[in-house]
Structures are given as structure tokens and as C-alpha cells.
Design goal:
The structure is a single chain. The chain has about 120 residues and is α/β, with parallel strands linked by helices. The protein is about 45% helix and about 25% strand. A five-stranded parallel β-sheet has the order 2-1-3-4-5, sandwiched between helices. Helix 1 links the parallel strand 1 and strand 2. The radius of gyration is 13 Å and the shape is globular.
């Protein structure tokens, strides 16, 4: 079972994503954070297989956190989360910075699980 961390400033979004992920026997959400700083701390504490990281958050946004994570933990698997309106250029930038994929809100449970299952 792969360990997943969710980092999103919206508690409702994080809970929805956690319910989808925990509904699959392949994954278990082990921690949640609210900003990029939390993502970096939780990555060091939890050693997750996958981090689901929101692009837009206070304190430290997801793109900045992704850059930092790739420097300190180059093998970390990050899937970025964004609202449908925020995909465009940020999608390409996230992939260029090392994100494995991007998931759009509102979530489609099948797409979320298929995206996570593609990550080895």
C-alpha cells in the first residue's frame, strides 16, 4: 500500500480527496498539510510515496514547494492539484519542474485513482 500526503489549504477539498484515495486499497492517506511549508515538513517526517500538492495556497504555494521538494528529495513523486481555471501554463510549468501529473478540481474519482496508479 502506497503512502500519500495531501497538501491543500481547503479542508473540504482535502477531505474529498482523502475519501477518494482511501477508497482504493492501493493507497492510504497518512498525513495532511495546509501549505507548501507543511509539504516539505511532512515529506521529511512521513516519507510518502506520493504527495498531492495544491498549486495555490497561502504561506508557500505549491509551485514553490515543488521546486524545494525536488531539490531536497529529487525522487519524490508529486501530483499537483489545481482548479479547472488554473491549468494552462501552470500545468506545463509543473511538469517541467518535476511533477508527475496534474489533477483538476472538481475531482473525478476514477481519474484520481488512475493518475496515482500510474506512478511507480
Amino acid at each position: 500500500m502506497k503512502k500519500v500526503i495531501i497538501v491543500d489549504d481547503s479542508i473540504a477539498v482535502a477531505r474529498q480527496l482523502e475519501k477518494i484515495i482511501n477508497g482504493c486499497t492501493d493507497f492510504r492517506v497518512t498525513a495532511q498539510g495546509r501549505n507548501g511549508t507543511d509539504a516539505i515538513k511532512l515529506n521529511q517526517q512521513e516519507k510518502p510515496d506520493i504527495i498531492c500538492l495544491d498549486m495555490n495556497m497561502p504561506v508557500m504555494d505549491g509551485m514553490t514547494a515543488l521546486r524545494n521538494l525536488r531539490q531536497i528529495a529529487p525522487d519524490v513523486n508529486v501530483v499537483m492539484i489545481t482548479s479547472l481555471g488554473g491549468v494552462g501554463d501552470k500545468y506545463a510549468e509543473a511538469l517541467r519542474l518535476g511533477a508527475r501529473d496534474v489533477i483538476s478540481k472538481p475531482f473525478d474519482a476514477d481519474i484520481v485513482i488512475r493518475t496515482l496508479q500510474k506512478i511507480q
